[in-house]
Design brief:
It contains 9 helices and 8 strands. Helix 2 runs parallel beside helix 3, helix 3 runs parallel beside helix 4 and helix 8 packs across helix 9. The mean pLDDT is 97. The protein starts with a strand and ends with a helix. Helix content is 43%, strand content 17%. The protein has a single domain, classed as TIM Barrel. 48% of the residues are buried. It has 260 residues and is of the alpha/beta class. The radius of gyration is 17 Å and the shape is globular.
Length: 260
C-alpha cells in the first residue's frame, strides 16, 4: 500500500534535528510521495530545497494569510519576491501556489490585506498555469467569494479542510479537491463522518499538515507523514471501504491535481 501525503511542512524548524532520517523512514513506511508546503518567503525556499533533494518530494510555494506583512507596502514587496521564487523554479517539482487563503481566527484586523494577498497569488497561479492550495479558517464566506470572483484555471485544494458542509459543497461545485487531516480522527469531531461522506472519491485527498495536528492515536505529539495512514483508515471507516482503496484513490487524485 502506497500513500501520498498531500500537505506537510518538513521545512519547519521542528524537524531540524532529524529531518533527513525521518524523511527516509517515512518513505520506507510506504508514504512514497509527499508535498512540502511553503507559507512565507523563507519556508518556500526551504520547501524547494527539500524537494530538489528527494525524488519523492514536491514543493508548493506561497504566503499564507497568517504570514503576510502588516503593511500594504511590505505586502507588495513580499508578493513580488514570492513571484520571483516561483517563476525561477517552475518545472523543478514545484506543483502549486500555496498555502494561500484567508484566516479570520487569528487575525480579523487585516481582512483586506489577506484578501489582496490571496487574489494576487491566484493571479500568479493563473499566469503560471498552476493549481492553488487554500488555507481557510473561519473565513468560508469570503474564501468562496474570492475564488468565485477570481476563478482559478487549474482549480486546487482546500487543505486540512474545516468541517463546514456548506463551504465544502460550494468548493466541490467549483471543481476543488478536499483534503482531510488529523482532525477527522479526533473524538470531538462530531460531524466528521457526514462531511467526509459528502466528498466524492474522485475529489478526496489525505494529508498530515506535519508537524501539526497529529491524528489519534498520536494526538498531541509532533506529527509526521507516517501518520497519514490513520487519516486514510478513518476515511475508510466513514465510507465503508478498505484503507487500501482509500490509499489508491487519494494517491491517484493527488497525482492528478498536482500533474505529477
Amino acid at each position: 500500500m502506497e500513500l501520498f501525503d498531500s500537505h506537510s511542512h518538513y521545512n519547519d524548524e521542528k524537524f531540524n534535528e532529524d529531518r533527513e532520517q525521518l524523511i527516509q523512514d517515512t518513505y520506507k513506511s510506504g508514504v512514497t510521495k509527499f508535498i512540502c508546503a511553503g507559507y512565507d518567503i523563507e519556508s518556500s525556499k526551504k520547501a524547494i530545497e527539500i524537494s530538489q533533494k528527494y525524488d519523492f518530494i514536491y514543493s508548493i510555494c506561497g504566503i499564507s494569510p497568517n504570514d503576510i506583512p502588516q503593511s500594504e507596502q511590505e505586502l507588495w514587496k513580499s508578493l513580488d519576491e514570492i513571484s520571483k521564487i516561483v517563476t525561477q523554479n517552475i518545472g523543478k517539482k514545484l506543483v502549486a501556489i500555496g498555502e494561500i487563503g484567508l484566516d479570520y481566527y487569528w487575525n480579523k484586523e487585516n481582512k483586506m490585506l489577506q484578501q489582496q494577498a490571496f487574489i494576487k497569488q491566484i493571479e500568479l497561479a493563473n499566469k503560471l498555469k498552476l493549481p492553488i492550495v487554500i488555507h481557510s479558517r473561519d473565513a468560508s464566506v469570503d474564501t468562496i467569494k474570492v475564488i468565485k470572483d477570481y476563478p482559478v484555471a487549474k482549480c486546487g485544494i482546500f487543505h486540512c479542510c474545516q468541517l463546514n458542509q456548506e463551504m465544502i459543497k460550494q468548493a466541490l461545485d467549483l471543481g476543488y479537491y478536499i483534503s482531510f487531516a488529523g482532525p477527522i480522527t479526533f473524538k470531538n469531531s462530531k460531524n466528521a463522518g457526514d462531511v467526509v461522506r459528502l466528498v466524492p472519491n474522485k475529489r478526496i485527498l489525505i494529508e498530515t499538515d506535519s508537524p501539526y495536528l497529529a491524528p489519534e492515536p498520536n494526538r498531541g505529539k509532533r506529527n509526521d507523514s507516517r501518520n497519514v495512514k490513520y487519516v486514510a483508515q478513518k476515511i475508510a471507516e466513514f465510507k465503508n471501504i478498505t484503507t487500501e482503496e482509500v490509499a489508491k484513490i487519494t494517491y491517484e487524485n493527488a497525482m492528478k491535481i498536482f500533474e505529477i
